[in-house]
Design goal:
82% of the residues lie in helices and 0% in strands. With 235 residues, the chain is mainly alpha-helical.
């Protein structure tokens, strides 16, 4: 938090220095101010204030996705260069039309705001997508952890454990960007297998064979998932 505060103060200090220098240079260098030059000075200060505000906002938005922060910095820098150059051109007398100056400055400001909105929308979409992928990854990791617990149970046969190992390897390579109907079925079947394996006490032949059958059912569902994911562009 202290680092954030220092960065914010540094950005604000540099921006204010730019504004003060601009005013001082104008007072020292411009001996015959005209309406156009006064307007150019006003737009130049406005450019510096808008750029400063953009950078401060980015510093306050550290929790936003990187795509927004980088985009805002680049847009703010380009706006400062282009808008500032337009104002300086009229300030030194190369441009004389206040109307053209005003029109151009409004266009540059509108473009900056447009890009900030676009990057903000894109950043929001990226954040939601990252959160969705993180949730899917957490669910798959939890599924793998439940399967790995089965390998430590002495009540399961080697055949079942080999099947569980095969399931674990398959789940590890699931596409974590896609979620399909079979995912819920696989999770449910794994839960049933875990519950069955936890049963203690004497068991008949039918009960001992059920884990093997359930392993085959889970592997079959994994094949189904592969087809569903491929239709969605998952694999």
């Amino acid at each position: 938090m202290a680092g954030f505060s220092r960065r914010l103060k540094t950005v604000a200090f540099i921006g204010l220095v730019w504004i003060v220098v601009t005013v001082v240079v104008y007072l020292l260098a411009v001996s015959n101010p005209t309406t156009t030059k006064r307007a150019a000075l006003a737009f130049l200060i406005l450019t510096e204030l808008v750029t400063l505000g953009t950078f401060i906002y980015v510093e306050y938005s550290q929790s936003r996705p990187a795509v927004f922060r980088i985009g805002a910095y680049v847009s703010g820098s380009l706006y400062f260069i282009i808008s500032g150059a337009t104002a300086v051109t009229h300030l030194v007398g190369l441009g004389t039309s206040v109307i053209w100056l005003s029109a151009l400055e409004i266009i540059w400001l509108a473009l900056l705001l447009t890009f900030l909105v676009l990057f903000g929308a894109g950043g929001k979409g990226t954040s939601e997508e990252d959160r969705s992928v993180a949730e899917k990854s957490a669910a798959l990791d939890a599924l793998i952890a439940r399967l790995e617990e089965l390998l430590n149970l002495g009540s399961l046969s080697d055949t079942v454990k080999n099947g569980v190992r095969e399931i674990i390897e398959e789940v590890k390579y699931f596409d974590r960007n896609s979620k399909v109907p079979a995912d819920e079925q696989i999770s449910q079947k794994v839960g049933e297998l875990v519950n069955l394996a936890a049963i203690t006490g004497p068991a008949g032949d039918d009960l001992l064979k059920r884990p093997e059958v359930m392993v085959e059912e889970i592997l079959a569902l994994i094949n189904v998932r592969g087809g569903q994911a491929s239709k969605r562009g998952g694999f």
